[in-house]
Amino acid sequence: MxxxxxxxxxxxxxxxxxxxxxxxxxxxxxxxVPLREAPDGMVWLNANENPEGPPPVAIEGAVxxxxxxxxxxxxxxxxxxxxxxxxxDLAGDxxxxxxxxxxxxxxxxxxxxxxxxxxxxxTPTFEGPLEVATALGRKVVRVPLTASHSADVRKMAEAAxxxxxxxxxxxxxxxxxxxxxxxxxxxxxxxxxxxxxxLLVDEAYHDFADTPAFASALEFVRxxxxxxxxxxxxxxxxxxxLRAGFACARPDLIAAMSPFRNNVISYVTAQAVxxxxxxxxxxxxxxxxxxxxxxxELCAWLKEKGLNYLESHANFVxxxxxxxxxxxxxxxxxxxxxVGRPFPPYTNYLRVSIGTDADMAKFREVFWSVYQA
Length: 373
Description:
Blueprint: H1 5-14, H2 23-29, E1 43-45, H3 56-65, H4 77-86, E2 95-98, H5 100-112, E3 119-123, H6 128-135, E4 140-144, H7 153-160, E5 166-171, H8 183-191, E6 197-202, H9 218-222, E7 227-232, E8 245-248, H10 251-257, H11 267-304, E9 316-320, H12 326-331, E10 337-339, E11 349-353, H13 357-372
Helix pairs in contact: 3-11, 4-11, 5-6, 7-8
């Protein structure tokens, strides 16, 4: 019998207490309550997904490819990689495609950490690289965020000094805070990287940055600096379930990461990505504008209610609930809204993804009811 997304997600959440899950599934469901069945009409605002889903052109590309999906199509992937690279004004040997950005982040940890080469990470942030490094037995150095909730680049560089190399992980805009590490700080970090140190910049949310302080680290890739930039089709493209992402870096860094990629991505996914890239100038601006508008409307409502929040440049917002947020996080799914997992040490904050207008209306209703209870 087919398993619905509701039953699968909530069953997976219940399994957290009894066994280890795959990382990404665990991240997405860590905030869930182990109920046997999610309420009808559940609003999913817990995983920073795009409620618009894949653009129609991507769906059409995927459907067209299905009759040919009985073959591997390995010989066609070189052209696919070249198309992804060209979309960022890079050469084919400067890009590594993987299953979402998570796979290429994993490959970077494999390639650029070692027993004597630690992972230096801002914290709190996306936990994937940290947990991979921990599982590999690598030393992990956690550097707390600045007062503006962004990366403390000077302390990260200081932490890397004295080692025979290191991997620095910087998420920009950051998850969960939504804060941007200013371009001047990023440039300083690149200029002051210790020898044999690689900077890994996760730009999963770059499309939602709305400040002149933000600049992509891709300029440093084009300059040939020891920088890896991770991108994904999961967020603004709405293709999270199709699992496609890529890393950008100079050829020698891509070559070092390549052995740790599992395999080519799905041929169907590749065709969906190609169709989306060819049409992105038409649909991406509207998607970005809708997220920024809904984010601004949520922040205005929070101000009306007298609640503080962190200024976000991503498709989510961290709300200061002025007390331990966990009771709210776990109570809201029972009323039909799933929100983000806890992010210690930001224990008084609740992270909510930006959804449709109807999603956000339901969130405001349920959140305010639970908050006042």
